[in-house]
């Protein structure tokens, strides 16, 4: 496993992690009607934001701030319940920073503005570094190693980068770098992405992770705030300007990715669409997934609910409670039904003679009898009526539910209610 032990992380104890968690996530459709994208459930137990927060904690960072904006109640409640163990007397802090018009009468206008409006709070903690993180990606990474590179190379900004096949990088901001990792050009969504030195088939795409010296960042953000032509965004404005005017350095994710084995590929996912969200969840049902949730040396922290153990009941032909290649959370009751390659969050009940194949079932869902579900995401609290069949007639599914380009059906209670009333 890559990564340094948290007890020896020295630079990280001089850093604050600033997590940008205000995004709406419109491509997740109805999943983000009542919650921000970072608050969306993931992996049978977690929320998406838990990955960035856990990476910071496991890296040794003990000062964390989270900027929220869009429909933040669910997200704030989750953090209050699951991330309330920081102790100020140990120089630990966890601040939730809703958009509150601290500087102007505007809400956060961009990712850079979401930091600028809280610069007085950042300065008050007197940290040497600020690590800017996106709160809506799924990955494991040791930020201490990125901080070390930042200091060793005397960078003004260090940018976390994914190594991706060159022609797959056309939808990203792409870095052109020299042999010393210095960024010499930044191109937004290029048709012909620049290649990595010595690797003509690969390119470096921005992860939206940045390390700054605190005072330098505050000065840069103040100047950006005064620029009427700026959109006040790190990727669109701040980073391209620093590539031209300062020393910007790239940090390839492969150097600090936490992996289940040395030969495993670094795992990072933007779960921003129904299909990518569905696929990333099902990745976890593999025998040895590239994202290891069972690694006690790099745990994913979250709010742990008080639930009874999962329960599987009935053992007769045609009515046998069981699950194969699946993750089943506490409080679930699998009553005479069959589950295959699926994730069941807390307190899901599936009644007799039903099957779920390739399903992501969020908390507090009840599935009736004689139901067949395949390639589905079921939102929280949905009651699936007896006899419903989804995933066998795609044209019919598209008239009743939200069907993605990849054929995944998202089911919400509003959709079920419309079906009952039709």
From TrEMBL:
> Which residue range or ranges hold the Glucose-1-phosphate adenylyltransferase/Bifunctional protein GlmU-like C-terminal hexapeptide domain?
308-411
* Catalyzed reactions per annotation: alpha-D-glucose 1-phosphate + ATP + H(+) = ADP-alpha-D-glucose + diphosphate
Question: What Gene3D superfamilies does the entry give?
Answer: Hexapeptide repeat proteins, Spore Coat Polysaccharide Biosynthesis Protein SpsA, Chain A
Q: What are the GO MF terms of this UniProt record?
A: ATP binding; glucose-1-phosphate adenylyltransferase activity
What Pfam families has UniProt attached to this entry?
Answer: Hexapep_GlmU, NTP_transferase
What are the boundaries of the signal sequence? none
Q: Name one GO biological process term.
A: glycogen biosynthetic process
What does the entry list as the binding residues for alpha-D-glucose 1-phosphate? 108, 173, 188-189, 206
Q: Which residues make up the annotated site Could play a key role in the communication between the regulatory and the substrate sites?
A: 69, 107
EC top class, as a word: transferase
Domain of life, source organism: Bacteria
Could you tell me which NCBIfam families the record lists for this protein? glgC, PRK00725.1, PRK00844.1
The similarity annotation says: Belongs to the bacterial/plant glucose-1-phosphate adenylyltransferase family.
Q: What does this protein do?
A: Involved in the biosynthesis of ADP-glucose, a building block required for the elongation reactions to produce glycogen. Catalyzes the reaction between ATP and alpha-D-glucose 1-phosphate (G1P) to produce pyrophosphate and ADP-Glc.
Output this protein's name.
Glucose-1-phosphate adenylyltransferase
Its gene is: glgC
């Amino acid at each position: 496993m890559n990564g340094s032990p948290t007890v020896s992380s020295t630079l990280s104890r001089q850093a604050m992690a600033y997590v940008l968690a205000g995004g709406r996530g419109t491509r997740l459709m109805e999943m983000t009607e009542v919650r921000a994208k970072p608050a969306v459930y993931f992996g049978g137990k977690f929320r998406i934001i838990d990955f960035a927060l856990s990476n910071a904690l496991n890296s040794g960072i003990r000062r964390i701030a989270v900027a929220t904006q869009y429909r933040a109640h669910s997200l704030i409640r989750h953090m209050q319940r699951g991330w309330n163990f920081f102790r100020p007397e140990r120089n630990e802090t966890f601040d939730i920073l809703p958009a509150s018009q601290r500087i102007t009468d505007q809400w956060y206008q961009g990712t850079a503005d979401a930091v600028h409006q809280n610069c007085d709070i950042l300065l008050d903690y007197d940290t040497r570094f600020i690590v800017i993180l996106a709160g809506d990606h799924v990955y494991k990474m040791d930020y201490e190693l990125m901080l070390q590179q930042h200091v060793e190379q005397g960078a003004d900004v260090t940018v976390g980068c994914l190594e991706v096949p060159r022609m797959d990088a056309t939808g990203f901001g792409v870095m052109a770098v020299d042999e010393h990792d210095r960024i010499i050009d930044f191109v937004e969504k290029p048709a012909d992405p620049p290649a990595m030195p010595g690797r003509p088939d690969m390119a470096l795409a921005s992860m939206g992770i940045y390390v700054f010296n605190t005072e330098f960042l505050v000065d840069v953000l103040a100047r950006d705030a005064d620029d009427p032509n700026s959109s006040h965004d790190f990727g669109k404005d701040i980073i391209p300007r620093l590539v031209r005017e300062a020393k910007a350095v790239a940090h390839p994710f492969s150097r600090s990715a936490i992996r289940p084995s040395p030969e495993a590929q670094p795992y990072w996912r933007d779960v921003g669409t129904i299909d990518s969200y569905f696929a990333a969840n099902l990745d976890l049902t593999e025998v040895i997934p590239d994202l290891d949730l069972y690694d006690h040396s790099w745990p994913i922290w979250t709010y742990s609910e008080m639930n009874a153990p999962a329960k599987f009941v009935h053992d007769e032909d045609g009515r046998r409670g069981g699950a194969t290649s699946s993750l089943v959370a506490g409080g679930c009751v699998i009553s005479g039904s069959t589950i295959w390659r699926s994730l069941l969050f807390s307190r899901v009940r599936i009644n007799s003679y039903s099957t779920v194949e390739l399903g992501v079932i969020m908390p507090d869902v009840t599935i009736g009898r004689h139901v067949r579900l395949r390639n589905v995401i079921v939102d929280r609290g949905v009651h699936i009526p007896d006899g419903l069949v989804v995933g066998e007639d795609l044209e019919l599914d598209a008239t009743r539910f939200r069907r993605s380009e990849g054929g995944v059906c998202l089911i919400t209670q509003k959709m079920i209610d419309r079906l009952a009333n039709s």
